[in-house]
User: What shape does this take?
Amino acid sequence: MTITLPDLPYAHDALAPHMSAETLEYHHDKHHNAYVNKANELLEGSDLKGKPIEDIVRGSHSVNGALFNNAAQHYNHVHFWKWMKPGGGGAVPGALENRINQDFGSTGDFRNSFVNAGLGQFGSGWCWLALKDGRLECMATPNAENPLVHGATPILGCDVWEHSYYIDHRNNRKAYLEAFLDHLVNWEYAAECLDGAT
Ligand code: MN3
Assistant: This one.
């Protein structure tokens, strides 16, 4: 079984103006595709070949850096496309909203925590809402790293590599993170991730 590039779950221009067709053409068709090709190449002859992607990510972490980087980026992007939708960022489904209120105090506190995690990640990486030890928390990770290698399950993640926002928001990462939360997040998919984790 090889790793394959999933189609975007919407048209390339469906997230504009918050994330343009040009960004998605580069980000999905070129960057994500390159991670898929490289991961498949590196899986040849590896005993992780054919394993579920989560096992490949955990199994290559701190053992095979090149495989980890490409497999983890594949995992991260598969979910990232699904964590967005046209006209997203609306109401948080009740069960997830209750968990956010319980663990952060309020949705506003969650929002500050998520944006600050994204802003605080120096250079390339990701910010996350993740479930760890039964509690929701925000975290930031460098490069390809993700909550899986910290014993946590990702519920929502945002790519803060410049390739994700430089065309549309230039160097304004904060504006990108706010546009992601206000206009792009597919909260139904985040709620599905929480259901899967509990
Ligand atoms: Mn990316």
About this structure: The domain at 94-197 is CATH 3.55.40.20 (minor pseudopilin epsh fold).
